[in-house]
Design a protein that fits this description.
The chain is mainly α. The protein has 3 helices and no strands.
Length: 96
């Protein structure tokens, strides 16, 4: 495998995490516009993308191969947790 093939393999491996993180960050900014006004879209996206990438890597190591449903479930959880923590830090989830 040459360097270009390795680059595309890594991009395709990490793409689900970064795309889902972008969609989730956009939905958060759309649904809770006033509450998340001090948090930038990019900040939510990057934290979610990093969490999802780490989860995909952990799933690859633990499960032995990519593309298992448990790995994608872990990815969704790892994307949502940092974004939830950023929103909770502002008191978004503490209000009733």
């Amino acid at each position: 495998m040459n360097a270009l093939d390795l680059f595309w393999h890594l991009c395709n491996f990490l793409a689900p995490a970064w795309v889902v993180a972008a969609l989730m960050a956009g939905a958060l900014k759309l649904l809770w516009r006033q509450d998340l006004r001090s948090r930038g879209w990019r900040q939510l996206w990057v934290w979610g993308g990093v969490g999802g990438s780490l989860a995909l890597l952990a799933a690859l190591v633990l499960l032995g191969r990519d593309g298992k449903l448990a790995g994608y479930g872990l990815m969704i959880l790892a994307i949502a947790l940092p974004q939830w923590a950023l929103a909770w830090g502002q008191g978004l989830l503490g209000r009733r």
